[in-house]
Every structure is written in C-alpha cells, then in structure tokens.
C-alpha cells in the first residue's frame, strides 16, 4: 500500500507525464476514471448543500476554518495553533475541532503545544456533535450578543466574563471541505513547494476541489514561502488572483527551534547540537522537502532521508529498513548517525521509534512564522483576521 501511495503521489506531482514509469502510465487511466467519479460526487454533494437538502450547522460562536485544496504539507495544523494562541492571548477561549485523522497525531501535538492556554480541543469526525458536547461542558460566549456590543471582543482588556473559560470561537482544522458547518472566516493554506501538481482532482491529482474554490476564501497563506523563489511566488499569486482578484495573500515558514529526545520528551537540545553530525531524516509528512532542507541548514556534516507517505504509521518492517540505512551510513562515515523525525511522527507512535536503540532519535520542534514580505507582516495578518471577523459578525446571521 505504501508503494502504491508513492506511485500515485509521483503521478500527481509529475512535471513531465512522459517520464512516468510503465506501471504509472498503466495506472493513469484507472486514476482518471476514479477522478471523474470523484468530480461527480463532489458536484452532487455541493448541490445537496446548495439547495439545503443537507443541513449546514450554525454554531453559536464565530467559526474560523483553516483548510487547503490539496493533500498534506500545507501548514494547516501550525496555522490552527497560531490562531488559537492569538485568540487565547486576546482573552477568548478557542475550541479547535479536528477529525483526528490517522491516530490523531496532529491533535496530540496541538494539546502539547497549547497546554496552559485557554484552548480546548475536540476530536471526532462529527464536528457539529463534538462542538455541541464541548459547549455543554464549558459553556460559550456569543460575541453577537449585546454583552459584546455586537463586536468581536479581541482586546487584551476584555471583560472578566470572557476570561471565564467559556468558548468564544471555534477553529475548524482542515475545514475547507467540511461543508456541514457554516464558517465566518475561510483561510486557505497553499504549499508553495508543491502547489497543485497536475491540477487534477483526487486520485489522479492532488486537488480536493477545483481551483475555483479559492473564491470562497477570505485569505490565503503561501506556506514554505522562504523556500520558494521570488518569481515562483509571483506566479502563485497570479494564479490565485486570476480566480479571486481581491484575495489577501500572506506568507509563512516553519522556523526550527530545538530538538527533544524521543526517549525523554522533557529534554531540550539546541539546533547546534547536531552541527557536524551524520543525520538520517525519517518522516511521514506531507512536505518532507521542507523538513530535510531545515536539517541541511543547521550545519550537519551529511543529511540522508527516508520518506513515507503522509500519516503513515511505522511498522516493524519500517524499523528494519531504517536500521539498514543507519548501518550503511555508519559504515560509510565511521560514526554513528542520528535519526531526526518531526513532532507529528513522534505523536503518531513514539513507542516504535524507541526500538531503534542504541541509535539516538531526536524530534525537531518548529514554530510557524508569518514572514514580512511585500508589505505583508504578522501584525498585518492579525489585523486582517480581526477586521474580517468583525465585518462578518456585524452582518446578518
């Protein structure tokens, strides 16, 4: 199954379809047919919601959706964390609704990062039901009510009742295609490194929806913008503004901060700890190139990599494959290499990674940074989010 996923991913992002292998070319007609069925199902589902044959739930608090148009590596989860911190620092208790896909690695990472903040996290496929359960447990504050004077309370000097822990906003993780919940703000994350591949719908291509879905977006964020050339950034902006001319566009990157040992999560190592080291990057994330690039920049002597598909759960056979590569590196360089994984990989299954002893396994911790680029800044991004929410909440319900 893992090999099939790799083959399909290569088809979706191949720049030159003529260079596909014989096996991949034989798969293409099947994937094309499946993609056509997906398009029909997508259109039918959209019609059901458009004509109110399927119900859209309106939650009693503002809903901020963070989503994307493609699979994996778009920075959704770091952006969800960024917005949760912004709301929490502003005196509002946010509720993050996440599906908990593939064992809930993202939810566990969010819980660890946001521990000690006002944030609550609800995990489950039926997000309306999960939200209702959380509202019953924690209560909620409706900023549309008279107590908030029909404005979103986003000031640090908010009234004491806003500090009570009652939920004041919902952040919908991976929410762009979750049409059963109405949202007040739609943020679309775009992977600047991989973009939209062959621009085909799943499974032939990486698109969950056609690019015309960008018209629903209130703001777009180009992730990994630091690894993209200025010309490519301009091209991406041009493509998006062809769909929606007025779309505000911002830029983000993942900034490495430190490592911790898989065997001891409370440990903290500086990035310089791996200077001149032999590193094997092992990851099952949507954008492994950005992760490997970060490791190459810290001054390692040599960086090798083993990539698995997004959300892949490591098995005993994978551990043996990793051990084999480690042995090859040790023989080649005469010193013991260090395995580096991402936090998502750690949270998916930390125990199996401990089976790589005596090799040291470190997890890289990174934070989302909004880049100052072409007049766009973090302060400007926060201000835009606040203004957009105020406008939405001031309008008719």
TrEMBL record:
<keyword id="KW-0418">Kinase</keyword>
<comment type="pathway">
    <text>Glycolipid biosynthesis; lipid IV(A) biosynthesis; lipid IV(A) from (3R)-3-hydroxytetradecanoyl-[acyl-carrier-protein] and UDP-N-acetyl-alpha-D-glucosamine: step 6/6.</text>
</comment>
<keyword id="KW-0444">Lipid biosynthesis</keyword>
<protein>
    <recommendedName>
        <fullName>tetraacyldisaccharide 4'-kinase</fullName>
        <ecNumber>2.7.1.130</ecNumber>
    </recommendedName>
</protein>
<dbReference type="Pfam" id="PF02606">
    <property type="entry name" value="LpxK"/>
</dbReference>
<keyword id="KW-0443">Lipid metabolism</keyword>
<dbReference type="GO" id="GO:0005524">
    <property type="term" value="F:ATP binding"/>
</dbReference>
<keyword id="KW-0067">ATP-binding</keyword>
<keyword id="KW-0441">Lipid A biosynthesis</keyword>
<dbReference type="GO" id="GO:0016020">
    <property type="term" value="C:membrane"/>
</dbReference>
<keyword id="KW-0547">Nucleotide-binding</keyword>
<dbReference type="InterPro" id="IPR003758">
    <property type="entry name" value="LpxK"/>
</dbReference>
<dbReference type="GO" id="GO:0009245">
    <property type="term" value="P:lipid A biosynthetic process"/>
</dbReference>
<dbReference type="GO" id="GO:0009029">
    <property type="term" value="F:lipid-A 4'-kinase activity"/>
</dbReference>
<keyword id="KW-0808">Transferase</keyword>
